[in-house]
Amino acid sequence: MTTDVPDEAEALLTSEPLVAHLGTCHDGKPHVAPVWYRYDDGVVEVAIAGRKLANVRENPRVALSVQKDEGGRARWGASIRGTATVIDDEDEAGEVLQRINRKYDADDDAWSENTPVRIDVGSVDYWTYDDE
Questions:
Q1: Cβ(101)–Cβ(110) below 8 Å
Q2: What is the pLDDT along the chain (132 residues), one digit of tens a residue?
Q3: Cα separation of 126 and 74, whole Å?
Q4: What does the DSSP assignment read for 74-101?
Q5: Phi, psi for residue 99 in degrees, rounded to 5
Q6: SS3 state of residue 27
Q7: CA distance 132 to 123
């Protein structure tokens, strides 16, 4: 079940193409790796392969962390926890990959070896830092 994500958090998550860190689990140990992401209406889309994909297939509970920095100073951050679903349908997968690639100004067919995953947001925490 997707949770309501506060409007301010949604605005931050959709503000610009930032790198996120996806946390998965393998043999009871955390595995964290950078990913491109796309957020829309309580759902995060990422494209993954290798260990990350194997981990999600084994255990769909994931976490995603996004942070905006300027000159080495954190401006805002968000932590999302949710349940991931691997998108195996070829047509749907192609559409998701295109959406993610377009966000990062990459060719539509870039990173085609990756498999898209949809994360239904279960909870989100976010924070902003005031200017000093």
A1: yes
A2: 456 788 888 988 999 999 999 999 999 999 999 999 999 989 999 999 999 999 999 999 999 999 999 998 999 999 999 999 999 999 999 999 999 999 999 999 898 899 999 999 999 999 998 765
A3: 12
A4: EEEEEEEEEEEEE---HHHHHHHHHHHH
A5: -60, -45
A6: coil
A7: 29
